[in-house]
Description:
Number of strands: 10
Protein name: Cupin domain-containing protein
Domain Cupin type-2: 31-98
Structural class: mainly beta
Largest sheet: 5 strands, antiparallel
CATH architecture of the domain at 32-109: Sandwich
Organism: Clostridium bovifaecis
Pfam family, one: Cupin_2
InterPro entries: Cupin_2 (IPR013096), Flavonoid_dioxygenase-like (IPR052538), RmlC-like_jellyroll (IPR014710), RmlC_Cupin_sf (IPR011051)
Oligomer: single chain
Shape: globular
Amino acid sequence: MYIIDEENKEYRFGDSGPKYLMKGPRMNFALVQFQANQDFKAHYHNIMEENFYIIEGEIDIIVDGKINHLTKGQFIHIEPGEIHYCVNNSNASVKMVSTLAPYQQLDKIEIEDYQY
């Protein structure tokens, strides 16, 4: 058992991206934040499934070319192999929870020049 204080962790890109509260051994748990008009490169996972739960704001999460506009209180589940791309097309920040399981250290395959 352990306890993590969010304030002791940092977002990957300063004020945006994932902030991992736990990485492995069986799953990842992160808070993810994007400022207005920021995005996160399209990618997929071979083994891990990924979930997002929107805490505040709104975001477009494109899964295999389908635009899913999500708002506070909504949840999306993404299966292994599904290409997903997150973009905040709003004028405000978005904050969400992300989980990935089962944990794999190297399971993210980035997509160059993703078009949807």
